[in-house]
Specification:
6-stranded parallel β-sheet; 3-stranded parallel β-sheet; alpha/beta; 12 strands
């Protein structure tokens, strides 16, 4: 890699899967010898949303003066308010695109700009799946400036482990509990499954807003699952392989994702995956794992039952998943990212 090329990465403080992706890409870019400088912004340190909004505006002004004229700029989140700085700098500009649900709210207050127009002014967009590329194309973004670069998995960490975090039998659910994560159907399918496997637990992992947790608890009480669902809001990354390896399966029937990092982490740890028959979930698992209609609790439960009841079939899924997970590697992701954003400078 050319150490004379300066890359500034604009990212922000967060605690979700995107944060893990950002850390992994940055770490591997630095390890490969690229001249990287990270500008980490904390845009939401206060409880008052109006104060945070003012801070975001100030951060945009600050960014203009922190970026040198010869820097290549990489934004890690196209939905961030910080993306607006791209209209004030002449630099080569790139972004990592995850998924699209709706335009960021702040474009409603900017009459001369739109989300599509901002994306169109970028020099390149990295899509983390073919699904996110299709979403971009539907927005009218030129596909010639887009490239699919999959997120990866740290195979030194995420691999089968003989250590366990729990001694009981459980299926695993990872992620926030916002509507697109499909918690209602996860719980309904688990209730059906629990009739055949009364000792089985559902371990739910991930940080959640109080509003979404309240909704989840209403479902749990309605379905009489209070004693069968275990919440673990945060698990250190080093312990995740033990969690995946000990699970009977990962249940991930999401309605919308840009990628779905738990899917590839689970496969790398030898954990069977039951996920949606929608992309990008279906795209990630390929034919190696079982996909289901995420809106059909009976079908979800039936497929889970097959895996729980047939050890030979489950072991075959494990082996196929381990092989499939090799397709996703952070070192390859970092190299492809560097090659894409520096192509004209070589």
């Amino acid at each position: 890699m050319n150490s004379n090329i300066n890359i500034k990465i604009i990212t922000e403080k967060r605690s979700d899967a995107i944060h893990l992706c950002n850390e992994s890409i940055i770490h591997n870019l630095k390890n490969s010898g690229a001249n990287i400088k990270v500008i980490l912004l904390n845009d939401k340190p206060f409880r008052n949303s109006y104060i945070n909004f003012i801070l975001e505006i100030l951060n945009i002004i600050k960014l203009v003066f922190m970026i040198n004229r010869d820097d290549i700029v990489l934004f890690t989140d196209p939905l961030s308010f910080n993306m607006l700085v791209s209209i004030f700098i002449p630099n080569k500009k790139y972004v990592i695109f995850y998924h699209y649900e709706r335009d960021p709210f702040y474009y409603k207050f900017i009459p001369f700009l739109s989300y599509r127009k901002i994306l169109g002014k970028l020099d390149g967009i990295m899509c983390i799946s073919n699904f996110s590329l299709i979403q971009l194309n539907s927005l009218g973004v030129d596909p010639k400036k887009c490239k699919v670069i999959y997120s990866g998995v740290n195979h030194n960490l995420f691999k089968p482990s003989s250590l366990r975090l729990h001694s009981f039998d459980y299926i695993l659910s990872i992620g926030s509990e916002e509507p697109r994560k499909n918690m209602k159907n996860i719980l309904q399918s688990f209730q059906i499954l629990n009739k055949n496997f009364p000792n089985l637990k559902l371990v739910k992992v991930g940080k959640v807003s109080s509003k979404n947790r309240e909704t989840t608890m209403k479902y749990i009480k309605k379905l009489h699952l209070t004693k069968n669902v275990i919440f673990t809001d945060y698990i250190e990354e080093k312990d995740l392989p033990k969690l995946y390896s000990g699970a009977k399966l990962l249940l991930f029937p999401s309605l919308l994702e840009g990628f779905g990092l738990p899917i590839v982490e689970a496969m790398a740890c030898g954990c069977p995956v039951v996920t949606s028959n929608r992309n990008p979930m279906q795209e990630l698992v390929g034919p190696e794992q079982l996909t289901i209609d995420p809106l059909n609790p009976d079908e979800i439960a039936r497929i889970c039952k097959v895996i729980l009841s047939d050890n030979s079939y489950r072991n075959a899924m494990i082996q196929k998943g381990l092989e499939r997970s090799k397709k996703f590697n952070w070192e390859i992701t970092a190299k492809d990212t560097y090659d894409f954003i520096t192509a004209e400078h070589k």
